[in-house]
User: Which sequence fits this backbone?
């Protein structure tokens, strides 16, 4: 099962192609929820993440801000995650994100905290996941 948060995705304006997906994997009868991003290993952002995987992702929807502080973990050897990304986003293969492409990189969020604030900076909600 793949879930996505379209409102958050649609507000992101970044210089790379990044999409969030949450994929449920079955691991020894334990459900694990992971939020994935995708990029290309040849992009500067991939090289920056390799040097320092602690990142802050920021988005604004016209009313509120979200800031997600997290570690990004490279999971590019996980073919199930890559298949889920390709299945979820019909543009992925056309954009070069194929299982055969060694530069197709998927990363998941770990040790994440999210803060949602209004336009004035007043904290509305905090999450840890």
Assistant:
């Amino acid at each position: 099962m793949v879930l996505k948060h379209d409102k958050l995705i649609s507000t992101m304006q970044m210089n790379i192609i990044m999409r969030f997906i949450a994929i449920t994997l079955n691991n020894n009868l334990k459900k694990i929820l992971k939020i994935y991003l995708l990029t290309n290993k040849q992009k500067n952002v991939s090289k920056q993440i390799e040097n320092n995987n602690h990142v802050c992702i920021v988005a604004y929807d016209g009313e509120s801000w979200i800031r997600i502080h997290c570690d990004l973990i490279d999971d590019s050897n996980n073919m199930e995650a890559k298949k889920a990304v390709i299945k979820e986003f019909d543009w992925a293969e056309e954009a070069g994100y194929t299982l055969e492409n060694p530069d197709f990189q998927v990363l998941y969020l770990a040790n994440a905290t999210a803060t949602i604030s209004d336009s004035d900076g007043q904290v509305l909600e905090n999450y840890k996941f």
Summary: The beta strands are 2-3, 21-27, 30-40, 54-60, 64-74, 104-118, 123-128.
